[in-house]
Design a protein that fits this description.
heterodimer; A: 237 residues; mainly alpha; Fumarate Reductase Cytochrome B subunit; two-stranded antiparallel ribbon; 9 helices; B: 359 residues; alpha/beta; Cytochrome-c3 Hydrogenase, Chain A, domain 2; 3 domains; five-stranded parallel sheet; two-stranded antiparallel sheet; 14 helices; 40% helix
């Protein structure tokens, strides 16, 4: 009899986030934390260290952390793009939002109403909700591309004229912005955009985990999306 | 026509000094020692390039720098080259006699002379209700256009001619416009030699290169000679070890300033400025701003005059009305979003407790 009781408590579940997506999410999150902290201290360095220059390498280590995390971020992003091509449907969502579909915008509108406390409950989605797709695509994906391009352009300045970073990025990005200092300023503003995104992302993930009809936070750990009720998953259709 | 070598020998300069100049110039241009011989040869055999040196809206700091070219010989070579033709601030001739030289050069060396521009034209001066920068009764813009159409190449000396500089600072009432953006200027290639002023040795080397190799020096995407503008001040700064160590001057009179720490925190623009100051230095290799304890202000970069304080690390962002930097803007944005998140979370919690009590 006990097994029947267990079955009654079981929530319907679907496997949405494959291993590479989850791995990327958490590696990427860690890289962003390191990038923001080290990046902030590159712009506004810590108080001077005492002693001889030869015995210290603080700024060097901070910059190394920034560049190392940046390469992890870039390589992770490329790997994630690859997985968007060969992975499941949910792996593609944030890269190709179905902006041309009217039903999608209806979903966005419903989600906005849900956040404005005007809708009684949100719809059920196996992947991201439409508003989340919109934010992830335009703020995170394009924000990340902007940060990678400007970041590599700034890195190319140091690695020099003949480096691939200079040839591929610095050579056109810096004239495009006017001068190096402008690229620094926009790269810096990009950091704050990502920070604002992260704040909202974490808040919304926790809120939806509590208030919506489906799991959020645990899904990015286990890969399984569980639902609180047995009603149909509409997925915006 | 006389060669450089004949002119300088006539001026009583020894062959030894001449050879020294050639070697130094080759080294400054990043050429191998073999090229010193080539430069020597060119200077001895090729006729001097006629140069017209025009002055628009500027402060003459480029000329001042030029005549202080570190090696004594450079000064003599260049002065003898230019005084024969036209440079209104340092030429002997004046008035109609001086202006006649411009026409004469254009006629005699059509398509062969180099037009050196110091300063830029103000294209919208009529909007301010008056005119300035009138040369021989005509606006400078006309003289510039006339000469440019007959020139072999145009050298934009300094940040005025290259980027616009201080007279082009917002709101730029006179419409001061860098040479490469002036319409109707003909097809002569433009070399930018930015800096306020450019380094004297860089200026002489650019002309020497053109004489020796009979072509323009290799230019980067922004039109600057690669050999002098492909590295940042920061890349070759002698205070760089202090930057890497994390040792900064925090205030003008602190211990760090006395010890010669990195000036990054006092707004040094070395990390974003492409120029050769930290390698060639100034006044015959004597010093450069950072060596004298002052941060680089980025004078060879486009728009350096409109990026907020010279002594601020982060650029000012004017679009936000008052002077802000990226961190201030970002922190306000994060603060607003954080506040909104907190309020939203509070309302969500209230709604949830209400909903559950309703059930």
């Amino acid at each position: 009899m006990s097994s029947e009781q267990i079955q009654q408590r079981t929530e319907p579940a679907v496997y949405v986030y494959e291993v590479p997506v989850r791995l990327w999410h958490w590696v990427n999150a860690l890289a962003i934390v390191v990038l923001c902290i080290s990046g902030y201290f590159i712009g506004s360095p810590l108080p001077s260290v005492p002693g001889e220059a030869i015995d210290n390498y603080l700024m060097g280590y901070i910059r190394f952390a920034h560049f190392a995390a940046a390469y992890i971020f870039v390589i992770g992003f490329i790997g994630r793009l690859y997985w968007a091509i060969i992975g499941n449907r949910q792996a593609r969502e944030i890269f190709l939002p179905p902006l041309h579909r009217l039903g999608y915008w209806g979903g966005v509108w419903h989600e906005i109403k849900w956040y404005l406390f005007l809708a009684k409950e949100p719809r059920k989605y196996t992947g991201h909700n439409p508003l989340a797709v919109l934010a992830m695509h335009f703020i995170f994906v394009w924000g990340a591309i902007f940060m990678m391009i400007t970041g590599l352009a700034l890195y190319g300045e140091g690695s020099g004229y003949d480096s691939w970073q200079y040839q591929w990025f610095s050579s056109w990005v810096i004239p495009l912005f006017g001068q190096s200092q402008d690229v620094h300023t926009f790269h810096h503003l990009g950091m704050w955009l990502i920070i604002v995104f992260v704040m909202i992302h974490i808040y919304v993930a926790i809120r939806e985990d509590i208030m919506s009809r489906q799991s959020l936070v645990s899904s990015m750990i286990s890969g399984w999306r569980t639902f609180r009720d047995h009603r149909k998953v509409d997925d915006g259709r | 026509m006389e060669t450089f070598y004949e002119v300088i020998r006539r001026q009583g300069i020894s062959r030894r000094s001449f050879v020294k100049f050639c070697s130094l110039t080759a080294a400054a241009m990043g050429l191998s020692p073999a090229y010193a011989k080539k430069i020597e040869e060119a200077m001895e055999t090729k006729p001097r390039i006629p140069v017209l040196w025009l002055h628009g809206l500027e402060c003459t700091c480029c000329s001042e720098s030029f005549i202080r070219s570190g090696h004594p010989l450079a000064k003599d070579v260049i002065l003898s080259m230019i005084s024969l033709d036209y440079d209104d601030t340092i030429m002997a001739a004046a008035g109609h006699q001086a202006e006649a030289i411009v026409e004469e050069t254009i006629e005699k060396y059509d398509g062969k002379f180099i037009l050196a521009c110091e300063g830029n034209p103000g294209l919208e001066q009529q909007n301010t209700g008056g005119m300035s920068c009138i040369i021989a009764g005509k606006p400078y813009t006309e003289q510039l256009r006339h000469a440019a159409k007959h020139a072999q190449a145009i050298i934009s000396w300094g940040s005025c001619a290259s980027w616009g500089c201080v007279q082009a600072a917002a709101p730029n009432p006179t419409g001061a416009t860098p040479i490469h953006k002036v319409p109707d200027l003909g097809n002569a290639p433009i070399i930018k030699v930015p800096g306020c002023p450019p380094i004297a040795e860089v200026m002489t080397a650019v002309i020497t290169y053109m004489l020796t190799f009979e072509r323009l020096p290799p230019l980067d995407r922004l039109g600057r000679p690669k050999m002098f503008y492909s590295q940042r001040i920061h890349d070759k700064c002698y205070r760089r070890p202090h930057f890497d160590a994390g040792q900064f001057v925090e205030a003008w009179d602190d211990e760090g300033a006395r010890k010669g720490y990195c000036l990054y925190k006092l707004g040094c623009k070395g990390p974003t400025t492409y120029n050769a100051c930290s390698t060639i230095r100034w006044n015959g290799g004597l010093s450069f701003p950072i060596q004298a304890g002052h941060p680089c202000i980025g004078c060879s970069e486009d728009g350096f005059w409109d990026k907020g304080g010279f002594y601020d690390r982060l650029s000012g962002i004017h679009q936000f009305g008052i002077e802000e930097n990226a961190d201030q803007v970002g922190m306000v944005a994060a603060g607003v979003v954080g506040g909104a998140v907190a309020v939203h979370a509070g309302v969500s919690a209230l709604k949830r407790s209400k909903d559950s009590s309703d059930e």
